[in-house]
Amino acid sequence: MSEKTIQLEVFRYRPDADGPGFQTYDVPFHDDWVVLDALNYVKDYVDGTLSYRWSCRMGVCGSCGMEVNGEPKLTCAAFLRDYLPGPVRVEPLTNFPVERDLVVNMDGFMSKLDSVSPYIVPKDEAGGGPSAEHLQTPAQLDRYKQFSMCINCMLCYAACPVVGRVDEFIGPAALALAQRYNLDSRDDGRERRYDVMFQDEGVWECTYVGECSEVCPKHVDPAGAIQQAKLSGALDYYKRMLTPWARRS
Q1: In terms of Cα–Cα distance, which of 57, 96, 87 is closest to 75?
Q2: Quick one: how far is CA 29 from the chain centroid?
Q3: What are phi and psi of 134, to 5 degrees?
Q4: C-alpha R_g of the chain
């Protein structure tokens, strides 16, 4: 009995050789195989020149994000059985420059991520300094926990229509992580982040289409985080505006 197979249509681009195009491979079909397994089969047994990223194969590192039949997916979580009878078209993530085959350039994303200070800026409470202990209640943890699950897979950037239209837009993941730290009771960097989040290319560019939240493999809900940031930022602004009047009264 011949082995059951499924077709992969894989985007190929080698800037030092051929122009962009698709190459078709017949790979074995197994019910428990994911798209990443099929790509690894091609790499190991058919065409060693194929280039793509992957690491953990457990949906944790976020490095194997690609377009599978036109949808941003972690290929380690996209089962071949869900694409029967095939073919399965695999492409690099949309809205990113392609370096080679399925590998995209992440420099723009990393720069945007860095701009929002995605880390705790410690408070200097009672002279305790950064080394002081800052206790946190379960309720305080719950405020930001959902937004802390981001694995920087960039699927939300591939799905976002604004990212595709406005190159300078900071984007869903970076803004969601900024809000995660703004909600952390141990953090004192909100004003620093507000300078970035509320510029023209920040939260106000988001049109709340919600595709970023739909494709997120960790259910972070970047769209919700951005809307929260809009509201909290507006409230903070009005509080600052009203403070002088309150003092006069």
Answers
A1: 57
A2: 29
A3: -120, 100
A4: 22
Question: Stretch 32-58: mean pLDDT, rounded?
Answer: 97
Nearest to 94 by CA among 178, 162, 22, 39: 162
Task: Say what the pLDDT of residue 18 is.
Answer: 74
User: Domains (ranges, CATH) in the chain?
Assistant: 5-104 (3.10.20.30), 107-248 (1.10.1060.10)
| CA end-to-end span of the chain | 88
For residues 53 and 17, the model is more confident at 53
* Closest alpha carbon to 52 in 92, 103, 115: 103
DSSP the chain: -PPPEEEEEEEE--TTS--SEEEEEEEE--TT-BHHHHHHHIIIII-TT-------SSSSS-TTEEEETTEEEETTS-BGGGGTT--EEEEPPTTS-EEETTEE--HHHHHHHHHT--S--B--GGG--TTS-----HHHHHHHGGGGG-----HHHHH-HHHHH-TT---HHHHHHHHHHHT-TTB--HHHHHHHHTSTTSGGG-----HHHHH-TT---HHHHHHHHHHHHHHHHHHHHHHHHHHH-
Whole-model pTM over 0.85: yes
Q: Rounded CA gap, 12 and 92, in Å?
A: 9
160-188 pLDDT per residue, tens: 999 999 999 999 999 999 999 999 999 99
Here the tokens at position 226 are 């951005």
The tens digit of pLDDT for each residue in 125-135 reads 545 555 667 88
